[in-house]
TrEMBL record:
SUPFAM superfamilies reported in the protein's UniProt record: Homeodomain-like
PROSITE patterns for this protein: HTH_ARAC_FAMILY_2 (PS01124)
Lineage: superkingdom: Bacteria
Phylogenetic placement of the source organism: Bacteria, Pseudomonadati, Bacteroidota, Flavobacteriia, Flavobacteriales
Molecular-function GO terms, alphabetical: DNA-binding transcription factor activity; sequence-specific DNA binding
Protein name: AraC family transcriptional regulator
Protein keywords: Transcription, Transcription regulation
Sequence intervals crossing the membrane: none
Organism whose genome encodes this protein: Gelidibacter gilvus
């Protein structure tokens, strides 16, 4: 029996601005082991699991059901190489993808960005209790409603106009020198502000943004040369190098094994 992942976009308009979406996995102790690779992206990822045993290594997450009653959350804001996710059997899980800058409106971002990943993440006094209450619900619509209401209760809109402008400049592939001149800032200030609000350096964000764009545009490109030029890579070797870093494969081998028409393109099963 294969694991079924159900992905949802937020129904609330406010949440849609800051959360890309979330998926649910339902517990099934009879399911076969499942493994997949998740590739670098610019989202912040919060996963909450119930009654599980987690083994987190640098490039591997191992998840299995446990007789111990628990609710465990982990938060990942930064990774530059593929991570293998292995489910020995499926468990109750909710995973939320926050858009770049989005997490800042719910949590104190400077604190959560001090580490690339946080194990046993517990951002609020009522967090685990509320997540457990969501897992108890059997109806998916009720779960979604309660999940969205919870995050709305933690929402506090912040003025991130400047960080948003820097993000747009990076995505437009402006050089740091050009951005510094445009805003009359030093390079050091831009790097500091970016890391504080996004959890990555501008250079890291730019490379991942190019990589992700190339995945979305793959089907519309005639060949890999056109794909690399259309996504602001300097040349084919630059394209190949970044792909090798982010996927452990060259572009040709990657696209032969990955369906880029999938909606959930930040992970592949």
């Amino acid at each position: 029996m294969r694991m079924k992942i159900e992905f949802y976009k937020p129904s609330n308009n406010t949440l849609r601005k800051y959360i890309e979406g979330y998926y649910f996995i339902a517990e099934d102790k009879n399911s076969k082991p499942i493994q997949y690779f998740t590739f670098p992206n610019n989202y912040c990822i919060l996963s909450v699991s119930q009654n599980v045993k987690l083994q987190l290594e640098e490039k591997h997450f191992f998840i299995s059901s446990s007789e111990n009653k628990n609710t465990i959350a982990n938060f990942v804001s930064r990774y530059a190489e593929p991570i293998e996710i292995v489910y020995e059997n499926t468990v109750n899980e909710i995973t939320i993808y926050f858009k770049p800058l989005g997490i800042n409106h719910f949590l104190e971002a400077p604190e959560i960005f001090k580490k690339n990943k946080i194990e046993d993440f517990n951002p609020f006094p009522d967090f685990k209790d509320e997540m457990e209450n969501i897992f108890i619900l059997k109806n998916r619509d009720n779960q979604i409603e309660k999940l969205e209401n919870y995050w709305l209760s933690k929402f506090s809109e912040k003025d991130l106009t400047l960080a948003g402008r820097l993000l747009c400049d990076i995505e437009a592939d402006l050089k740091i020198e050009e951005i510094a001149e445009k805003h009359n800032f030093t390079r050091q200030y831009i790097n500091k502000l970016f890391s504080k609000s996004v959890g990555k350096t501008p250079s890291e964000y730019r490379k991942i943004h190019r990589f992700r764009n190339s995945l979305f545009k793959h089907q519309k490109s005639k060949n890999l040369t056109e794909l690399s030029h259309g996504n602001l890579f300097y040349d084919q070797s630059h394209f190949n190098k970044d792909f090798k870093t982010f996927t452990n494969k060259n572009p040709s081998a990657f696209f032969k094994n990955v369906d880029t028409e999938k909606g959930n393109i930040w992970f592949f099963i």
